[in-house]
Specification:
By secondary structure, the chain is α/β, with parallel strands linked by helices. It is about 40% helix and about 15% strand. It is built from 20 helices and 17 strands. Strands 10, 11, 12, 13, 14, 15, 16 and 17 form an 8-stranded mixed sheet that branches. Helix 4 links the parallel strand 3 and strand 4. The protein is elongated.
């Protein structure tokens, strides 16, 4: 009988822990259009796979009568489970318990799953919904944040780290997601900022709403903090599951292969005519990406931020690849501050986790102007340059059209240890475009010509002369900087064959404590 009583006590305690802050809190969460921590975990992980840790942990604080406000689990649900059969570790903050505020013991729970993930080599996924540090715990709460941040830092480049924001994430709370590899936000009810609207108003006099200050679309379009935005929490969790399918579990593994019925030698005739006759006319580089990857599937990262550069994951011949492509449809595909740091971060993630890089080039240069120079385009451009030059994963580059000046170098040129560089017949690889080159090379002669018709004729002749010399890939191919000029419709086949040939690639870096990336 005593044994049965103990079993009942266990089951009762489990039931209590699963209720978090109680039915009232759960109802309020639902009224706000939000899921609970446990509902989120159930949608994220394979059904029945979740194994929970520390269900019976409670806080240790007695300040401000906190001993009267103690809940089993202390505001975070932690454990491990699987996504499509692959193990992941997860923690989900529970807003129904004291607003999901971080205590010393909550931090210990989170640190435990992060430590375990590092030991076994599995991704960590954090579902954030918290009012910040638990004020009643003072320095202990701040110490808890710092313990988490240190683990984020140590885990970086070792296991993938993914954060999802499903409610408030303010003050010190924002730094853990910022240290992770990818941040997801749901379009409604999620926001991130260091200081809230009231503090902003007090300090700067600026009136701003929560949504305008740190809402999902602000971080997806303006700051670049959010990599993905889902219409709903359910859609966001499904996007996380999709992302996990493209990436390995740790830095010693290869990304998972996926069988495909899409033949590697599939010809895509549309690519033979996709480049417009007019070199200044735009086209959508995503049409090229969808045409060459397996089954046309492409998971774009940072879709709404710095749209002049497209980055994301796809599969080619079943292999997971990271795709980086200039987008002529946005700002003519130029590189600027935001595009450079977007590209650099993506390239470094792929390199850290053994994901080959496929780069599609159509770049007229870097965006000029005081706005760019004052915002440090030199440093930001150097980040992307550094990322490609440091990367040791297989790198295949295809120049589609323009590849001018410093931007040519930055976009995975041969001298940055790109392994195989192809070009389409439409490629133009030069220091600059014909118009600018003509002004530089023949500036004195142009000043001496006063007749407008004669000047226009002279410019046309010199631009044609320059284009005949450089507006083709053969000059670069002559020096071996381009390995082959390929027919556009064969791009899929040639890239996949290159990736297959590079599967056993070994490259190394000089011994060092760590790099000093231009930040």
């Amino acid at each position: 009988m005593a044994f049965e009583q103990k079993i009942k006590e266990l089951l009762d305690k489990r039931g209590e822990a699963r209720m978090g802050g109680g039915q009232k809190g759960i109802d309020k969460q639902h009224e706000q259009g939000k899921l609970t921590a446990r509902e989120r975990i159930a949608l994220l992980l394979d059904e029945g796979s979740f194994e929970e840790f520390d269900m019976f942990v409670t806080h240790r604080c007695t300040n401000f009568d906190m001993q009267k406000k103690s809940y089993l689990g202390d505001g975070v649900v932690t454990g491990y489970g699987t996504i499509n059969g692959r193990q992941v570790y997860v923690f989900a903050q529970d807003f129904t318990v004291l607003g999901g505020s971080l205590s010393e013991t909550m931090a210990l729970k989170i640190c435990k799953v992060m430590d375990q993930a590092m030991k076994v080599g599995a991704p960590v996924i954090g579902l954030n919904d918290s009012g910040g540090a638990r004020i009643q715990e003072g320095i202990n709460a701040l110490a808890g944040f710092a313990e988490i941040f240190e683990r984020n830092i140590l885990a970086s480049g070792v296991v993938p780290q993914i954060s999802a924001i499903f409610g408030p994430c303010a003050g010190g709370s924002v730094y853990s997601p910022a240290l992770t590899d990818f941040i997801f936000m749901s379009k409604e009810n999620s926001y991130m900022f260091l200081t809230g609207p009231k503090v902003v108003k007090t300090v700067t006099g600026e009136d701003v709403t929560v949504d305008k200050l740190g809402g999902a679309m602000v971080h997806a379009t303006k700051s670049g903090v959010a990599h993905f935005v889902g219409e709903t929490e359910e859609a966001t969790l499904e996007m996380i599951r999709e992302l996990v399918g493209y990436i390995p579990s740790n830095n010693f593994e290869e990304a998972p292969m996926m069988a495909t019925g899409d033949p590697i030698d599939r010809l895509e005739d549309s690519l033979n005519t996709i480049i417009p006759e007019n070199p200044n006319q735009a086209y959508d580089v995503k049409d090229v990406i969808h045409a060459i990857v397996d089954d046309g599937k492409f998971l774009e990262v940072h879709e709404k931020f710095a749209q002049n550069l497209v980055v994301g994951f796809a599969r080619m011949g079943g292999m997971s690849v990271g795709v980086v492509a200039n987008q002529p449809k946005a700002m003519a595909g130029v590189l600027d501050c935001n595009a450079s740091r977007k590209g650099a971060r993506f390239v470094r993630f792929c390199d850290a986790f053994n994901i080959p890089l496929v780069t599609l080039v159509d770049v007229p240069g870097f965006l000029p102007g005081t706005g760019q120079e004052y915002n440090g385009v030199i440093n930001h451009g150097a980040k992307m340059l550094y990322a490609y030059g440091e990367a040791t994963v297989p790198k295949v580059t295809v120049t589609l059209r323009k590849s001018y000046g410093g931007a040519h170098i930055v976009m995975s040129c041969k001298q940055l240890r790109s392994d195989i560089n192809y070009a389409w017949p439409t490629a133009q690889i030069a220091v600059m475009g014909a118009s600018g080159a003509t002004e530089v090379l023949h500036g004195r002669a142009l000043k001496e010509i006063t007749d407008p018709e004669e000047k226009a004729k002279f410019i046309a002749e010199k631009e044609k002369e320059y284009n005949d010399l450089f507006a083709n890939p053969y000059n670069a191919a002559k020096y071996g900087y381009i390995d082959d000029v390929i027919e556009p419709r064969n791009t899929r086949f040639r890239v996949i064959r290159a990736l297959q040939a590079l599967q056993t690639k070994k490259d190394s870096l000089p011994m060092k404590k760590h790099c000093n990336l231009p930040l």
